[in-house]
Amino acid sequence: MLRVGGLTPLSTTDWPGMLAAVVFCQGCPWRCGYCHNPDLIPPRGEREIPWDDVLSFLRRRQGLLDAVVFSGGEPTLQAGLVDAVREVRALGFRIGLHTGGMYPKKLATVLPFVDWVGMDVKAPFADYAQITAAAGSGEPALAGLQTLLASGVAHEIRTTVHPALLPDSALTALAHDLAARGVKHYVIQAFRSQGCANAALGRSATRERPLHDVGEQFADLFTDFSVRS
């Protein structure tokens, strides 16, 4: 059974253009300082929702929602993800997935049942540990990105930008690297303090240059590029 740490009944932002419910999967191996869902990091949550209750809710929403997005935490951490996705797909919903790509083999097993992926790329891959606090985390993340790009599944790649963790020069270098690897759809999004447990990051989030101005330097590298505030 999938371990579910939360459920959003309706979202218009977790899969742009879709009316979706969001299933928040419990557990994540990384410790990103700017995480806005820190309660989902431990492998077990204090207020988990039984999977059967999630399915009952979704049955009542058939014909009212377009899709279900599996978010986290990190959904591919859980062995029950593929079965859960298949159950929801059988109800007639389209399937979205949010992932950090850190389990590329598990990602490959679920992609055939997924319609869209939002993948977070944290930083230049050599510098990943500065964000994730997990040594060597850039290597599997890069493999996850390559797996996604090779699959042909619709997706967006996005990067959360905190000025103290990802300077403008590093963000620009990352954008050029992603474009060279074949990324066509890229989003950069400003850090938001809501839900973040690290008070110091909240205090140091003031930017010297607007994020839109930075994005203009590499927007032309991508077929589809946007900045989310």
Overall description:
Keywords: 4Fe-4S, Iron, Iron-sulfur, Metal-binding, Pyruvate, S-adenosyl-L-methionine. InterPro entries: Aldolase_TIM, NrdG2, Organic_radical-activating, rSAM, rSAM_sf. Residues 14-229 form the Radical SAM core domain. One of its GO terms (molecular function) is metal ion binding. Its cofactor is [4Fe-4S] cluster. This protein is of the alpha/beta class and 229 residues long. It has a single domain (4-228), classed as TIM Barrel, CATH 3.20.20.70. It is built from 8 helices and 8 strands; from the N terminus they run ββαβαβαβααβαβααβ. It has helices at residues 51-60, 81-90, 104-110, 129-132, 138-151, 168-180, 199-203, 211-215, and strands spanning 4-11, 20-25, 67-71, 94-99, 116-120, 154-161, 185-190, 224-228. Strands 1-2-3-4-5-6-7-8 form an 8-stranded mixed beta sheet. Strand 2, helix 1 (51-60) and strand 3 (67-71) form a beta-alpha-beta unit. The radius of gyration is 17 Å and the shape is globular.
List the helices and strands and how they pair.
Blueprint lengths: L3 E8 L8 E6 L25 H10 L6 E5 L9 H10 L3 E6 L4 H7 L5 E5 L8 H4 L5 H14 L2 E8 L6 H13 L4 E6 L8 H5 L7 H5 L8 E5 L1
Parallel strand pairs: 2-3, 3-4, 4-5, 5-6, 6-7, 7-8
Antiparallel strand pairs: 1-2
CATH class: Alpha Beta
The total tally of domains equals: 1
What characteristic shape results from the CA principal axes?
globular
Residue runs with pLDDT of under 50 for 5 or more positions: none
Number of helices: 8
Q: What is the string of SSEs from the N terminus onward? A: EEHEHEHEHHEHEHHE
Helix content: 25-40%
- What is the subunit arrangement here? single chain
The whole-number mean of residue pLDDT values reads: 96
Widest sheet: strand ordering? 1-2-3-4-5-6-7-8
> Please, what is the CATH homologous superfamily?
Aldolase class I
Distance between the termini: 36 Å
CATH architecture: Alpha-Beta Barrel
Helix/sheet category: alpha/beta
Radius of gyration: 17 Å
Per DSSP, what share of the residues sits in E-state strands of 2 or more residues? 15-25%
What is the CATH third-level topology name? TIM Barrel
* Major sheet details: 8 strands, mixed
Count all strands and give the number.
8
